[in-house]
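Transporter: structure tokens wanted.
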Amino acid sequence: MADNAVPAETGKPPRSVRVVLLALMITMMLAMLDNMIVGTAMPTIVGELGGLQHLSWVVTAYTLATAASTPLWGKLGDMYGRKGAFMTSIVIFLIGSALSGMAQDMGQLIGFRAVQGLGAGGLMVGVMAIIGDLIPPRERGKYQGMMAGVMALAMIGGPLVGGTITDHWGWRWAFYINLPLGIVALLAISAVLHLPRKLSQARIDYLGAALLTVGITSIVLVTTWGGSEYAWSSARIMELIGIGVASLVGFLFWQTKAAEPVVPLHIFRSRNFSLMSTIGFITGFVMFGAVLFLPLYQQAVQGASATNSGLLLLPMLGAMLVVSMVAGRVTTNSGRYKVFPVVGSVLMVVGLFLLSQMDTDTTRFTSGVYMAVLGAGMGCLMQITMLVAQNSVEMRDMGVASSTTTLARTLGSSFGVAIMGALFNNRVQHVMTERAGALGSKITQQSAQLDAKSLEKLPAAAREAYQHAVSAGTHSAFLLGAIVGVAALLAALFVKEVPLRGAGPDKRDEDAAGDAAEARTTVAEAV
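Answer:
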């Protein structure tokens, strides 16, 4: 057995595993921080490079490349070895970061961001799959809870770090900052991570990869462009929907024929895996919608400063951090996990419903309590979904299980931002026209999301109308989120609590003891 495996009997990781886990947390931080840092630097980037009309593509190119490559990285890790695939994705991400920092015009920056996104697709998948290889599921909860904490910290600190770097070092360092952190992670993983090499004789499923890439790209473009660049009923959006549906149907058909499918459909025969993918999709839908609209509400209605926008989410992300750590510990100690998807879904629905009740008179303390309820629900769901999904498949499918679950969350976030955003924009336009007439309609004609400078220039009556409009818009968006969240609760109720592999000896019954013995054998064979 390689010295990286956590002994099932003790559950205490050797020093090499702790070093690997630190490197994995740095890598996850890179994946989570990037868009938030770059988002803060975008006004400065546009000011120097120009190309304002192509601004959205700086984010879209990265998102598209990340989503399209995510399932491929998972499959490559399963076929040819997790370590090599993961290190390759880090290298590509760092190359894309360096090139992005050196971009001389907006076209170059968009292209280099796509390269960066190709590498980013393998970062999150690699982190989760390697944890799945090294840590038995019974012990995995506390470590994945730590990863959820890293995600929360990245969301809080991203805008602050981005603003500080841009103000003091220049926007190019928003990309260059990835290099030293990535190199440290790369060196640590190269030196201390020991996993078996795999030499698969099967060929890569190029046709399946192409069909999946086209399908995912079409979906992301529909959710990105729909209602903003193009009307939802426009010919371009209809074409993309047609291409996306045809590609995904073709992909599913081909996966039943391919010798080594990109996403082996047999993993969906596991009820728990399918349910966790559904819950992950809904979690992404809700969470990224909340991250988008909560700061907007607090800035427009409650008069908060946009400078510390990351801190505005502290009640939600802080609760998510604490609860995810507790959930991981409880799962590790008890081996039971079904309670967390159920309780998490309930808290998510309640939190979203409470947030939908906010109006122009809601205090910051009250909205903070509501956010904390939502954050507690997210904390129960974020990493438990990955843990149960990985426990539902064989070790040889660990990579595709991790990538499929990650992709479901990514697609959920795309749909959440698009659908909740469309609902928000329509509601804001309606209320502004209702309260401020033609002036109100003109104010929000270009965008329903006004920045602080634009708000200051509005007449008092128009500003008050906009505050009511944003309050109405967030009501509609969060109410939709609560309704969608009910689907996660229904899915959670059908989860079957299958014993976690690697549970260690349990005196309560012979089945648990037998499961622990089997898990030790599995870990030994895998590592």
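The domain at 15-195 is CATH 1.20.1250.20 (Growth Hormone; Chain: A;). The chain has 19 helices and no strands.

Cheers.
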